[in-house]
Automatic annotation (TrEMBL):
GO biological process: carbohydrate metabolic process
Record domain Glycoside hydrolase family: where: 724-823
Record-given protein name: Beta-galactosidase
Species, as recorded: Lutibacter oricola
Ligase as UniProt keyword: no
Top-level taxon of the source organism: Bacteria
PANTHER family for the chain: BETA-GALACTOSIDASE, BETA-MANNOSIDASE
């Protein structure tokens, strides 16, 4: 009888859908990113006196106002109100029809940095201090249907130095208007897990939370699962009171890093009369996770290494309002380099970013906090002294908002198959003084990064006892955070990035963690496993050098590492001549660095070979009987967050001694200059996994050849620039004001050889329906504004990024540079 009633409901659903085709769907999710106005001020204003401001600027969301000013986190603070410290105001006027009466209406913000307050028609609706959290403004009771409404968002960035890196400023992530029936699926109210998986079948568990203020009975939930080809693979109907259900799928296509297969679950709420109250799509993947303290990590039953990188959320000259296409290009470049995992250091990422990770096949460690009970000392990065209101950060809000900020991240992100673990924090031990004082490294001759602890565990425990906690104790805070995670999701482990794991292990901190993340502590992987064999140890922050990866290969219990970092990022520098950290595998513009080529040889099975050059006098080597010998026997220890200033050209003065470094996974390599061999060298003979030669410079062709003679890399001497080599990733864009084209420009000589030893200005003139987002040469030394139409190259190249408008048409980009033939690139928008 129940089956017949469900069959009847299905018939009613089909009939209802047919009758509603000309009406609005029960759920509308509307792009709310356009037609905003903005201004920023140092003068405190009240919501009721904004009319005094008549210089509103038209902007589109996402929007980062801070990137419009040349950025430098290392400048000296000379007064209490530096030029980058502002309060921003956003305003949007909109009208909704009267026939929406009775509907539920809200506005979803994916992130506002920071201290956001949201007003509708002068009334405060909500607030959110944390700049990385998604949140909603429920406006059902405040909206004036049929009339013009004014939405205002206040963003307080007066504490502009609240983070150790560039956080941006403004409504920097997407906004949408969501309209539902009074009976609807709760925001983030669908949870999907895949507890049982085999090649033959998979069990899909679904939890659905319904808001039913009408107390309507006899509601049903219809589930429909489609595969990547948009074919229905399963349909299932249950009574709405059964909020948890299981569905079996035959012959599932599993999600993994090589084949990130995705499914779409469509959830429909129906009443007994066939009325559809809500329809919601949720993307998910089918995959299993297994973590073992002794044997590592297994994805779908296969041992898998985390070949990971840490990423901040800015994109060089674009700032933090990053278009999806920009992240797609960057992630694809990382993927090509062998990266399969990302740690979202150190805060909640955007929803769009995680969707790309699902689609492209990355394993994600979703991280939420860089500060907890106590603040970090950002002042050392800013050259300021004493307590500074400009550096006040999230610690001021953690006690009140920590639980909601964490749980909102978990609820929003839990269905992403890319997410394989939750991280509750980053290197917070330093903020609890007893941890550092108890480690034993203070006033010892032991080096923290390279040596086992200088004292025993018993001595460290005694030190902890003699240094009682202050108001807050890290172990208790971590237990609280871990408990909040488990209340939402028990299918993924909890981890954190620990900078003093030797103390954290016995202090109670790691009791709250399923996986213990070590920050730059590969030297104690074995120590940790010996003393705490029940705990999985993972390298969650590591230098980009061979020794760090070798420590994984040498310790079967360590499942991988996350390099610091995947991409250059803004901030965290005290050098006024730098815009940020150049520790990444790819630079600010997304161009691969020597580190990227190095790890491509380590993290890919395909044969790889690449060469860089540097003058001996500028290097960290000395010439010893014709061999490049390290000035320090532990040169690898110097290669922490930076490499030597390698070049990718073959242009020097005749006779100069040049060091050639070769990165390869070939067992041998042979160096030729103009077909003259300088010998074959073995990779295994180099403890840093880099083959090196010292050779006198001779103009011509430098060539390195692997053991397979077809594995060749060449660098040719270039003359002066006379041409521009243009490469674009798109020749057509959608006229949607979102699509982006990346245009790479390289100086070449008359023979087409890249000119990488000479830099000069390149100018762009854009005609047609597109706007300039940034011109970025990738260099850490680029300090000018990034929205100018001219820029000097670095190593002879730079990147132009343009974005479509809503107007279709032809875009002509005229590219000019001194003594070079002018090029015109044509891009269509439609």
């Amino acid at each position: 009888m129940r089956f017949l009633s469900y069959l009847f409901v299905i018939c009613l659903v089909i009939s209802s859908c047919n009758s509603q085709t000309e009406n609005k769907p029960p759920r509308q999710e509307i792009d709310f990113n356009f037609d905003w106005k903005f201004f920023k001020t140092k003068i405190p204003l009240d919501i009721n006196n904004l009319e005094v401001q008549n210089e509103w600027e038209d902007v589109k969301i996402p929007h980062d106002w801070a990137i419009e000013t040349p950025y430098n986190q290392g400048y000296k603070v000379t007064d209490s109100t530096p030029s980058l410290s502002y309060i921003g105001w956003y305003k949007k006027e909109f009208k909704l029809p009267k026939n929406l009466k009775g509907k539920n209406i809200r506005i979803d913000f994916d992130g506002v940095y920071n201290n956001a307050e949201v007003y509708l028609n002068g009334n405060k609706i909500t607030e959110r201090p944390y700049g990385f959290s998604p949140f909603s403004a429920e406006i059902t009771n405040e909206i004036n249907l049929g009339k013009t409404n004014t939405l205002v968002v206040k963003v307080d960035r007066t504490a502009f130095l609240d983070g150790r890196w560039y956080n941006g400023a403004g409504i920097y992530r997407k906004v949408k208007l969501v309209i539902t029936e009074p009976i609807h699926i709760k925001k983030w109210g669908i949870g999907i897990t895949t507890p049982k998986i085999s090649k033959e079948s998979a069990t899909i568990n679904i939890d659905t939370e319904i808001i039913n203020p009408l107390q309507k009975e006899n509601l049903s939930i219809k589930y429909e699962i489609k595969n990547a080809e948009n074919n229905i693979v399963k349909e299932h109907i249950v009574e709405a009171k059964n909020t948890t259900t299981s569905i079996n799928i035959e012959n599932p296509k599993l999600w993994n890093t090589e084949k990130p297969n995705l499914y779409v679950l469509t959830t429909t709420i129906i009443d007994k009369n066939g009325k559809v109250w809500d329809v919601k799509d949720e993307t998910f993947g089918i995959r299993s996770l297994k973590y073992t303290a002794s044997d590592g990590f297994f994805l779908n039953g296969e041992k898998t290494y985390f070949k990971g990188v840490c990423l901040h959320h800015d994109a060089g000259g674009i700032g933090v309002a990053v278009p999806d296409d920009v992240w797609r290009r960057r992630l694809n470049i990382l993927k090509e380099g062998g990266v399969n995992a990302i740690r979202t250091a150190h805060n909640t990422p955007s929803e769009s970013f995680l969707k790309l990770c699902d689609e492209l096949g990355f394993l994600v460690q979703d991280e939420t906090f860089d500060e907890m009970d106590y603040p970090k000392d950002k002042r050392k990065n800013y050259n300021s002294k004493g307590k500074d209101p400009l550096t006040e950060g999230y610690t001021n809000h953690f006690q009140k908002w920590g639980e909601q900020d964490l749980k909102d991240m978990l609820l929003r992100d839990r269905n992403h198959p890319s997410i394989v673990m939750w991280s509750i924090g980053n290197e917070v031990e330093w903020t609890y003084p007893r941890y550092g004082k108890s480690s034993g490294y203070w006033n010892s001759n032991k080096k923290y990064y390279y040596d086992e602890p200088p004292i025993t565990i018993a001595q460290m425990k005694e030190n902890m006892k003699n240094n009682p906690p202050k108001e807050f104790e890290l172990a208790k805070t971590a237990q609280k955070l871990s408990k909040w995670v488990k209340e939402i999701d028990t299918t993924r482990p909890v981890t954190a990035n620990l900078v003093i794991p030797t103390v954290s292990h016995f202090s109670g901190y790691t009791d709250a963690l399923d996986i213990v993340g070590y920050s730059y502590r590969a030297s104690v992987y074995d120590y940790g496993h010996r003393n705490y064999p029940e705990k999985m140890i993972l390298g969650t922050e590591n230098w980009a050098n061979w020794v760090e990866w070798k420590s994984v290969l040498d310790n079967s219990h360590v499942p991988g590492i996350f390099l610091w970092t995947g991409i250059f990022y803004m901030g965290e520098t005290s050098d006024i001549n730098e815009r940020g950290s150049d520790s990444g595998l790819i630079d600010f513009a997304g161009f691969p660095t020597p580190r990227w080529h190095m790890f491509k040889t380590l993290w890919n099975n395909a044969p790889e070979i690449y060469a860089t050059t540097i003058k001996l006098e500028d290097s960290e080597y000395i010439n010893k009987n014709g061999k490049a010998v390290e000035k320090s026997k532990d040169l690898w220890k110097k290669r922490r967050w930076g490499f030597q200033p390698f070049k990718t050209h073959w242009n020097y003065n005749k006779g100069e001694n040049i060091v050639v470094e070769v990165y390869t996974n070939s067992p041998t390599a042979e160096l030729f200059i103009n077909e003259k061999s300088f010998g074959v060298k073995k990779l295994a003979s180099n403890n840093d996994h880099i083959i090196k030669w010292i050779v006198p410079y001779t103009k011509g062709t430098l060539k390195v050849v692997g053991a397979d003679k077809n594995l060749i890399y060449e660098i040719k001497t270039a003359t002066t620039p006379s041409k521009l080599k243009i490469k674009t990733d798109k020749t057509e864009l959608k006229a949607n004001s979102y699509d982006v084209a990346h245009i790479e420009v390289q100086l070449t000589d008359k023979n087409g050889i890249p000119v990488q030893h000479i830099n000069q200005n390149i100018t762009f003139k854009i005609e047609g329906p597109a706007k300039l987002l940034t011109v970025d040469n990738g260099s850490n030394a680029q300090r000018s504004k990034f929205n100018l139409d001219t820029c000097i190259t670095d190593e002879g190249k730079l990147l132009l990024i343009i974005q479509s408008t809503k107007q279709p048409g032809d875009v002509n980009i005229k590219i000019t540079s001194k003594n070079c033939k002018t090029e015109i690139l044509k891009i269509k928008t439609h």
